[in-house]
Design a protein that fits this description.
The chain is mainly β. It is about 10% helix and about 50% strand. It has helices at about 5-20, 35; strands spanning about 45-50, 60-65, 70-75, 80-90, 95, 105-110, 115-120, 130-140, 145-150, 155-165, 170-175, 180, 185-195, 200-205, 215-220, 225-235, 240-250. The strands form three sheets. It has a seven-stranded mixed β-sheet with strand order 4-3-6-7-1-2-5, with no helix packed on it. Strand 6 (about 105-110) and strand 7 form a beta hairpin. The longest helix has 20 residues, at about 5-20.
């Protein structure tokens, strides 16, 4: 093939690639209008603590209370915007660490790829520890489950919100829960309601009830921003816990 012709073709391909990138056609951050129309920043809750390596580098933990996946695109420290690309599936927790910040922060704004913004708050560890152990659980009916919670921490904890998710990603949310207070070294029963038993709950996806043979993930948030996630199963009349995860917490200093 003629050398000049090859050079011309290569040049055209290069120009085309640059044009494609400049239009953003390959950008993973872009989201469809229909997707963004259903994204709800009120169902994104987060808090942060100082990182282990630096008191001004923060570890931010966020719970996505929606049934759809969310992409976190940026966060702001002071007046400076920093880009990230953190994908959190519906009903799941996500974590990222900020750069080292010369200033102490009490809140950090986070923005999604759809442009929705929400605030995360600082959970000051102080000289306390939040720790919950799970006891017995009883399904009162198809819309209520009672869970015994043992506070093994050093301070009283108040539960302020919860999320109940089924295996298909459908979720009930009670974002402003007047939940029980858990005194240290005591057991408190908390009731998690869905469906007809929770008029203040918001459902994301399809409505559901507790049915035999299925597993359900419950995420609860304390007033200090600690996120605890556990799974329960209703199995032929026997109720048991499968797993507990502390997605974000405070430890004694």
């Amino acid at each position: 093939m003629n050398t000049k012709l090859v050079a011309i073709l290569v040049g055209l391909v290069s120009v085309g690639a640059i044009a494609l990138l400049s239009t953003g056609a390959l950008s993973p951050q872009q989201a469809s209008t229909s997707y963004c129309n259903t994204e709800d920043p009120n169902l994104l809750v987060g808090s942060f603590t100082a990182g282990q390596d630096s008191s001004f580098a923060y570890t931010i933990n966020i719970h996505n209370g929606q049934s759809q996946t969310v992409t976190l695109a940026s966060y702001t420290l002071g007046t400076q915007l920093y880009s990230i690309n953190v994908v959190i599936a519906g009903g799941q927790n996500g974590t990222f660490t900020t750069i080292q910040d010369p200033n102490s922060e009490t809140s950090i704004p986070v923005q999604t790829s759809c442009g929705n913004r929400f605030m995360t708050v600082f959970a000051n560890p102080g000289n306390y520890m939040e720790d919950i152990a799970l006891g017995s659980t009883t399904f009162e009916d198809s819309t209520r489950v009672d869970v015994d919670l043992q506070n093994n921490g050093t301070v009283t904890m108040t539960l302020t919100s919860y999320y109940v998710t089924d295996s298909s990603g459908n979720e009930y949310t009670l974002a402003n829960w007047n939940g029980p207070s858990l005194a240290p070294n005591s057991v408190t029963t908390a009731t998690f309601s869905i469906g007809s038993s929770c008029s203040q709950c918001t459902v994301h996806g399809s409505a559901f009830t507790f049915t035999s043979g299925n597993q359900y993930t419950i995420t609860m948030v304390t007033g200090r921003g600690t996120i605890f996630t556990f799974t329960v199963s209703l199995d032929s009349g026997h109720h048991y816990f499968i797993e507990l995860q502390e997605g974000f917490g405070s430890t004694a200093s």
